[in-house]
């Protein structure tokens, strides 16, 4: 068994848009404006509203660049509030998922028939770290988080994605709140 520290980040609700949907929402040839660079892409200046059968969520972030398919990532609480029932999936695994209405601030909207998921918690590992600790992408790990606030948790079934140059686990807002993670947090990866 290997144990090592990893950074913990909380990923709030957001959408990834296809270029086709970007153009339907914002106009032909439109390119999203970069507000902030993040690993693997950027947070766009533009925001959208998500409308489900029960409620709407306003000012939802868009992450760029454009993707092959539009994907909407929610926490379980967001999904319940909207009235949708998306499955827990890794990013890009969209088959059999529900759609949702997406509206830009200019009033233009799209309603993909699929793409709504609750993102499975996952760990990004650099190839060097993965090799050092014998971790592969084919077996989930556990992440232990203790922020000293009497809310220590162990998250099981954390998917592993090897690649890139950082070692960071991504949780959704429900998971982050449950562990009282705050802005800066580390956890212990437990790989068997």
Automatic annotation (TrEMBL):
It comes from the Bacteria. Its EC number is 2.3.1.222. The keyword Transmembrane helix does not apply. The keyword NAD does not apply. It is an enzyme of class 2 (transferase). Keywords: Acyltransferase, Metal-binding, Transferase, Zinc. Pfam families: PTAC (PF06130). Its cofactor is Zn(2+). GO terms for molecular function: acyltransferase activity, transferring groups other than amino-acyl groups; metal ion binding. Belongs to the PduL family. This is Phosphate propanoyltransferase. It comes from Baileyella intestinalis. The gene is pduL.
